[in-house]
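Good morning C.,

I know you're traveling, so I'll keep this short. The sequence:
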Amino acid sequence: MLLPTSDGANAKATFQNSGLDGERAEKTAVAAMNSAIKMVLALAMDGMPAETEAKILANVNQHLDVVVSTSLDCAATAYVQAPQAAHASPTKPSSAPGVAAATIAGLGAGASIGAVRHGLYRAGSMLGDAEAIASGNPEKIVRRAGQHIFWRAFGRLGRGIFRGIGGKR
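The tokens, ready to paste straight into the viewer:
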């Protein structure tokens, strides 16, 4: 080969140091790279005479292991040298698409913006209750229940005091 090559030892070490599935990940990467090279080769040779395709395939197959090993070593070197955030935490999925979909569905069904907003706040409150229960933490569960009792009583008291002063009756 005309280009500098390697034996894949760097990639093998990187994969094996990556945890329990390192060996399996290495085999998967090698198989994927072999498949990708053969697929690109098949696309490039489409329409060539059969004897030309056979010669090219034989030459590629002869050097395929070296090409894959060198490519994996280059990828492992780039992976190891890539800067990593000090304490990067995985990003959590955003709820914005769900809220947008619910808003569009509510407005499409003819509800007012206020009714949709009320429904979304109510759904958020229910999700908070479910989260507290799922946590199994008795303090969280009692705190949420206490908040519901307090705000329900305060709402009734407020409606009783301020009934008739503007707003709905």
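Safe travels,
E.
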